[in-house]
Amino acid sequence: MATFYDFGLDHQIIRAISDMGFEEATPIQSQTIPVALEGKDLIGQAQTGTGKTAAFGIPLIEKADLKDEAIQSVVLTPTRELAVQIAEELNKIGQNKGVRSLPIYGGQDIGRQIRALKQRPQIIVATPGRFMDHMRRKTIRLQSISIVVLDEADEMLNMGFVEDIETILKEVPETRQTLLFSATMPKRIQSLAQKFLKDPASIAVKAKEMTVENIDQQYLEVQEKQKFDVLCRMLDIQAPELAIIFGRTKRRVDELSEALLKRGYIAEGIHGDLNQAKRDSVIRKFKESTIEVLVATDVAARGIDVSGVTHVYNFDIPQDPESYVHRIGRTGRAGKTGMAIMFVTPREMDHLKSIEKMTKRNITRRAVPTFAEAIEGQQRLTIDKLLEIIEEKDYQAYKNSAEQLLEEVDSVTLVSAALKMLTKEPNTTPVKITGEAPLRAKKAGFGGKKGSGGGGKYRGKDGGRDRDRNRSRNKKGGEGRPPKNNAERSYKKRNKNK
Ligand code: ADP
Ligand code: MG
User: Fold this and answer.
1) Is the CB of 77 under 6 A from ligand 1?
2) For 20-53, how does the pLDDT look when each residue is reduced to its tens digit (9 = 90+)?
3) Whole-prediction pTM value?
């Protein structure tokens, strides 16, 4: 594996990268950075969490010319969280060299953005819709742009940004370099690349190598109505340090986080309808572990980069195998092991099969836990905590009381009572969770066989995925475009009122 010295980078950049704690380049980085530095177009495919930001960020910053006051490169990315996060990372990489990156996204005051643009950042990281706004207002000029990066290209297409992207690419001078990064490579991305990239190098780091190696994958077959109780039991038994629960829709996320709170779990939800401040605060709390359970939709979770997630619960089976890999890739990072548990209703079993086929992995069936097991799990947790205190000898101040108590009651009774008091008994407060129709394999109209799971075929589009997106550009629609084909539309109809 390459170190960052091998690329012949500016020493200020190397120092910044090393301050960020990066020791060696990830596979996608070692393969793409030299190609990008050469000035070639490229298509880079690698899973979430493999360091794609630095893979394009390092060349952008290396190539940035501080003497040139114009905008030199633009990164397009699907969501405002990603725009903010990427700009942050680029600012870190560019810190010593003095290269500045500015995030530009819908929902933020445009006047403020225009003022920030006057500070002459070299790099703009933008959501496509808002970038177009600036193009039209001529507050961003494209003549000077020499590198365009399409980040999370698949997700931008899913969110209906294809026309915006095409419009933007048509206006940037043709002499530019174009770098396209995507976790998956459906046909639509390939044709976009064919249209706008010049003889691109294709670099793919295979999903199998990096995703699921250290993730223990399990599923439970469970009726829709029982899912929530089973989820609570699983949380009680596994007592995750930091967990993400994926729900299919925004309503699902709201209901789940509320219901979890009612039952005494420290949970919060995140999806595209929450305002920016709220989303930021939820992510921050999760990073700080002030909340232990984050409930999220696929798109909202894309922008979240948190290490230390121990468990991923797929409360709803994901739309397609790629999303599955994305979701579970939130855990098992940085060499740690993670656990991914998926709830599958009986009618969704063929979906499970297609996920297994595509990821070339067996997902282990696990029995639905009983109430008794949940109690046991919680007791074990209490006992662990007690033993920890004993180990740390952190109980001196309580010794007198203990001795006095032991004169009155026997030790077994006393410890039992203490355990009862300290144990969070499984909570069965009634909650309201609206049922979701089972996810059905899409049939004709998609050119894909039912449950075939083969590459792009199966990937339908943003239809059934949660449709949260960057609402911002205009009052009625946000930045996403309505879907085009019939299958998408009919899917949406089926899932209306979520
Ligand atoms: P992706 O865009 O592929 O989903 P990111 O660029 O968001 O991945 O990177 C995921 C995490 O890995 C981030 O926290 C990033 O700072 C970290 N990271 C990236 N490159 C390296 C590296 N070479 N060494 C260590 N950590 C890295
Ligand atoms: Mg990324």
Assistant:
1) no
2) 878 788 889 999 999 999 999 999 998 877 889 9
3) 0.53
